[in-house]
TrEMBL record:
The keyword Lyase applies. Residues 604-805 form the Xylulose 5-phosphate/Fructose 6-phosphate phosphoketolase C-terminal domain. Transmembrane segments: none annotated. It comes from Coniochaeta ligniaria NRRL 30616. It holds the Pfam family XFP. GO terms for molecular function: aldehyde-lyase activity. Keywords: Lyase, Thiamine pyrophosphate. Residues 1-20 are annotated as: Disordered. Residues 26-386 form the Xylulose 5-phosphate/Fructose 6-phosphate phosphoketolase N-terminal domain. This is Phosphoketolase. Belongs to the XFP family. InterPro entries: Phosphoketolase (IPR023962), THDP-binding (IPR029061), Transketo_C/PFOR_II (IPR009014), Xul5P/Fru6P_PKetolase (IPR005593), Xul5P/Fru6P_PKetolase_C (IPR018969), Xul5P/Fru6P_PKetolase_CS (IPR019790), Xul5P/Fru6P_PKetolase_N (IPR018970), Xul5P/Fru6P_PKetolase_ThDP_BS (IPR019789).
Length: 820
């Protein structure tokens, strides 16, 4: 093939070229689809341009236009084209399906279909199917107080807004896991296809079990351009594109061209071929009981950007070029010739004929749409609270860790939670999944494999039986892509189920922006009356910064909490349980909650345990509290408040109290622990915030507070700046100091160790005067000795590493060890 022929073969112009041949539509049906297509395209342009004169029953004037033109038209024709042809198959095969709009700002396509299906008017009665309702429908698009240009939560049938690109495929797969009859028809924009998350999501077929799961039918829409650039996949050869998706494990079918009549036949035949294949594979797997992994069908649709628009405006290309991406003609309010061109273009869709005198399409056109909940914009899966079933949760108290002596028992909090989680999985075999990037075993959650192994549809080796924990019908979803795992989980809960993602704390940042988008979705859902609540997005962070000493500086970053804390207080919660019983209580609460992003921070190593189960429940219910077993100020004014938030910081804070009481037995010390981080914020800024009276009762308003925090110290100062006595708050946390250290040395580098905390407390108590000098000097000497020991031996001194609460000065008894 010559270069010129190759270039021509990837242009979307001319009669349809398709892999699947066939003419399933009659001439009458093609005419109906042409009319439906025109009506849809007219609605899409109307949303962008018109404030008045919705059916152009008078000549178009600039007074009829919106003052600010917003919206994207470029991808709308291809999305509409796909949606309306899939409607035929929903009716023919009684399919349970919904539509995922991946291209950015794809709402005009989705909204036009919802309006024509009648769903939009049912949800928003003032946007009725008449001239007055149509005028309101147009005006509210990308308009103050209206609806955005993405498929936002206000959009019926949407679970995927697409504000940030790259998550359409992973969301779609998440929604079809454990929904055996559901098909997610997923439009993938060719700009979106250039993102990393989208690239990894194509591998989701390796985790799709056709016995218990539904199917995703991707339509990769190659319209050729992004905002101002060609798209990569639209500029590679047909053969290379086919090989790419064959390599991913898909069977691609091409539909290419711009001649509408022939494209109708090609798309209708191709979509039907895909549906038949999907049903065949599912039938084969379900009847045989064998979980097969076929090459699932997908479609590559190549059509012009801004299809059916003017090819040129003045001397500039429009249809098939990047200028059609957003508002196709931008100067209609100031350029009379372009205003006439827009009117001619819009009238070419024959609005007066198609919408008639009543301002609605004919029943014959309406009959192309399914009815009831079979309409894709009415599918209950997209308003998942309607189909959400509560989790069956075992009694978390049955998994309690025995704590005969507070601060004297060491045990793995994650081990206890893993047992609880195992039984959650066991009791919810079609309603709950655990997601994570290859870290379930590493994060000490391996007991879940007793109830559900890792989903695996790839090849098996003999050695996989030795601890591989792989099975096609598993309940644990592991892939070394945080993006895909997070996208699966979001799709899973957005479609009515429950789940948990676990991750190493330092690398959860990979999905910062995904969590941002989900938080914004939840926040907007609170404003949409018809949206039912969904299960909370639960994120368990472990392999924490303070125990990443062996992996080095790159693995030390607790900053995800800052990202989450910036989101709306209506939808985010952060919990740092100090021990295992608190972790169990917190997780039970999070699993039962809805419409939140819950972030739980808990280390996976063995740690001191402090609270019995009853005490843990009380502490977690309050979210913050004074621990009297480690305090000496009962009934008296404290000299200092030693506060902590996080399991490892809590242990160091208690050890600091032990040191202080060894040197100054008469000190009145108050020990405070925080589980719910948002208790610290003013109640004016967060519903969980303590009142100022409650704050003062715990922290005082005139005593020094030494606060040992899990993450960056500035976060606590930001939370507490309004509080009484905020100037007395001295926070220690991670300060970007790290290396290949021992745990104690890492803490010393960041001044969160027991010695630094005790010295800080001495410095903040002026009543000690110079009496504190000798103690401070001794503490600094011990700190130096501990560091020297760690550098020489490679381990922390055992009596420091294995410290337990005793208030007997055990560190002093082991002074010889440091000296020697």
């Amino acid at each position: 093939m010559s270069d010129s022929q190759e270039i021509e073969s990837i242009r979307p112009f001319g009669p349809a070229r398709s892999t699947v041949k066939g003419e399933p539509l009659s001439k009458e049906e093609i005419d109906l689809y042409n009319d439906f297509f025109k009506a849809s395209l007219y609605l899409s342009l109307g949303m962008i341009y018109l404030r008045e004169n919705p059916l152009l029953r008078e000549p178009l004037k600039k007074e009829h236009l919106k003052a600010r033109l917003l919206g994207h038209f470029g991808s709308a024709p291809g999305q509409i084209f796909t949606w309306m042809h899939f409607n035929r198959l929903i009716k023919k095969y009684d399919l349970d399906a919904y539509f995922v709009s991946g291209p950015g700002h794809g709402a005009p396509a989705v909204l036009s279909q919802s309006y024509l299906e009648g769903v939009y008017s049912e949800v928003y009665p003032d946007k009725s199917e008449d001239v007055e309702g149509l005028q309101k429908f147009f005006k509210q698009f990308s308009f103050p107080g209206g609806i955005g240009s993405h498929a936002t939560p206000e959009t019926p049938g949407s679970i995927h807004e697409g504000g940030e690109l790259g998550y359409s495929i992973s969301h779609a797969f998440g929604s079809v896991f454990d929904h055996p009859n559901l098909i997610a028809l997923t439009m993938v924009g060719d700009g979106e296809a250039e993102t990393g998350p989208l690239a990894t999501a194509w591998h989701s077929t390796k985790f799709l079990n056709p016995i218990v799961d539904g199917a995703v039918l991707p339509v990769l829409h190659l319209n050729g351009y992004k905002i101002n650039n060609p798209t990569i996949l639209a500029r590679i050869s047909h053969k290379e594109l086919e090989q790419l998706f064959l390599g991913y494990g898909w069977q691609p079918y091409f539909v290419e061209g711009d001649d509408v009549d022939t494209m109708h036949q090609a798309m209708a035949a191709t979509l039907e071929q895909c549906v038949v294949e999907i049903k065949k594979y599912q039938k084969e797997a379900r009847e045989s009981g064998k979980a097969i992994r076929p090459k699932w069908p997908m479609i590559i649709l190549r059509s012009p950007k801004g299809w059916t628009g003017p090819r040129k405006i003045d001397d500039n290309y429009l249809e098939g070029f990047w200028r059609a991406h957003q508002v196709p003609i931008t100067d209609v309010a100031t350029n009379p010739e372009h205003l006439q061109l827009l009117e001619k273009w819009m009238r070419s869709y024959e609005p007066e004929r198609l919408f008639g005198k009543d301002g609605k399409i004919s029943e014959k056109l309406k009959s192309l749409c399914p009815t009831g909940n079979r309409r894709m914009s009415a599918n209950p899966v997209a308003n998942a609270g309607l189909i959400r079933k509560p989790l069956k949760l075992p009694n978390f108290q049955d998994y309690a860790i025995s704590v005969p002596k507070s601060g004297g028992t060491s045990f793995g909090s994650m081990v206890a939670f893993s047992t609880f989680l195992r039984d959650v999985v066991a009791q919810n075999q079609t309603n709950f999944r655990l997601f994570g990037p290859d870290e379930t075993e590493s994060n000490k959650l391996g007991k879940v494999y007793e109830a559900g192994k890792k989903v695996w549809m790839g090849e098996y080796f003999e050695e996989d039986t030795n601890g591989g924990n792989l099975a096609p019908d598993g309940r644990v979803m592991e892939m070394l892509s945080e993006h895909t795992c997070e996208g699966w989980l979001e799709g899973y809960i957005l479609s009515g189920r429950h789940g948990l993602i676990n991750s190493y704390e330092p690398f959860i940042h990979v999905i910062d922006s995904m969590v941002n988008q989900h938080c914004k979705w939840l926040e907007k859902c609170l404003e949409v009356e018809w949206r039912s609540k969904i299960s909370s997005l639960n994120i368990l962070l472990t392999a924490l910064v303070w125990r990443q000493d062996h992996n080095g500086f790159t693995h030390q970053d607790p900053g995800f909490l800052d990202v989450v804390a910036n989101k709306s207080p209506e939808v985010v919660r952060i919990y740092l349980p100090p021990d295992g019983n608190c972790l169990l209580s917190v997780m039970d609460h999070c699993f039962r909650s809805s419409n939140y992003v819950n972030v739980i921070v808990a280390d996976k190593q063995d740690h001191l345990q402090y609270l019995t189960m009853d005490a843990a429940i009380a502490h977690c219910t309050k979210g913050i509290g004074i621990w009297p077993q480690f305090s000496t100020d009962s009934g008296e004014e404290p000299d200092v408040v030693m506060a902590s938030c996080g399991d490892i910081p809590t242990q160091e804070s208690l050890a600091a109290i032990d040191l202080l009481l060894h040197h100054f037995p008469e000190l009145k010390i108050r020990c405070v622990n925080v589980v719910d981080l948002f208790k610290l914020i003013s109640p004016a800024d967060h519903p969980h915030g303590l009142s100022d009276k409650e704050w003062t009762a715990i922290f005082t308003d005139d005593k020094p507070v030494i606060f040992n925090f899990h993450s960056y110290p500035f976060m606590i100062h930001r939370f507490c700046y309004k509080r009484p006595g905020a100037q007395n708050l001295h926070v220690r946390g991670y300060k970007e100091k790290g290396n290949i250290d021992t745990p104690l040395e890492l803490a010393i580098r960041n001044q969160t160790d027991r010695f630094s905390l005790a010295m800080d407390a001495i410095d903040r108590m002026p009543n000690l005067h110079n009496r504190g000098a000798a103690a401070r000097e001794a503490l600094r000497n011990e700190q130096i000795k501990a560091s020297a020991y760690s550098f020489e031996i490679g381990l922390d001194p055992p009596f420091l590493k294995d410290w337990k609460w005793s208030n007997t000065g055990l560190w002093k008894q082991n002074e010889k060890l440091l000296t020697n």
